[in-house]
């Protein structure tokens, strides 16, 4: 069982931040979070999540016009923004990632299976990734308010990669947090049969 | 930062299990995992994940015919199977879950936004949930090989709930594990701009 300090770090004190301390993010922490997140289970170990970390002033300026208005200031202020994306040709890596059977053939040419598997599993991996970032002591501000098509045409032109959502990353300013919104109780969202 | 024991529990030693120890799962652990998982961030705090825990012999018999052949034995042997699902009317709860603005109007009547948001965020929550189950000392065996439409027609008839994927839950038999499959290195799946 995880102890209470660890539960606090990952869950109880984990919040969605919009304001950031003036403190840089060590790139090694992002790499360590990646190495943890990819350990999480995916369907046939397909690992469709791809991440583009926006850190330089040039890259931030490129990202800015695609953000929803309410997401501009907090994103420009964040030390790093991760574009969490999905590789729609993830199945080309299955001969390496799932070598004991011909898993590539489960997907190649099957558009519905590709789209569903990439979206489900890149989102699932993003869940692992957010908690892995928190495990490195980092704070997150995930958001889906941006123009996916325009961002993809700029950052992923000519590739099979499509954006899923964004995560601002840094050390959050806890003084600027609002009270946490309510959560669904077990009996509101779950049942035991 | 999370210490190495916690990283081992959640990530390094976390594996997808197909064989289970003969040991019951305390329902309170499932409830505690739910309460942790719902703390994770979702878009406008929409929390679309719903979970039906299959535990009784009757419910297991109901589930069995919808499973892909390769998933039958391990699922019937698991102490509990979670049907991770998504509520396509999640927006009806937004006046309670995100009360400071009219977030319901962002979704009501907008089928594409509903489907995308429910699928993305229920999958994201499933990522938190798998790690929250591991945080309770439980092991998981997630899988998407089943007939979603037939399962939904049985378990969720007349509701806006649709299945996403399944997670077998229990105490795994580590002696029956194969070697872990390879993972994508940072440079294979990520970039820094």
Description:
2 copies of one chain form a homodimer. The first copy, chain A, is α+β, with helices and mostly antiparallel strands. Chain A has a single domain, classed as NADH Oxidase (3-Layer(aba) Sandwich), CATH 3.40.109.10. Helix content of chain A is 40%, strand content 17%. The first copy, chain A, contains 8 helices and 5 strands, in the order ααβααβααβαβαβ. The first copy, chain A, has helices at 4-12, 27-37, 57-63, 69-77, 94-97, 111-135, 148-155, 186-189; strands spanning 49-54, 80-87, 139-143, 161-170, 190-192. A 4-stranded antiparallel beta sheet of chain A has the order 1-2-4-3, sandwiched between helices. In chain A, helix 2 crosses helix 6. The model of chain A has no long low-confidence stretch (mean pLDDT 98). Chains A and B meet through helix 1, helix 2, strand 1, helix 3 and helix 6 of A and helix 1, helix 2, strand 1, helix 3 and helix 6 of B. Strand 1 of chain A pairs parallel with strand 5 (190-192) of chain B, so a sheet runs across the interface.
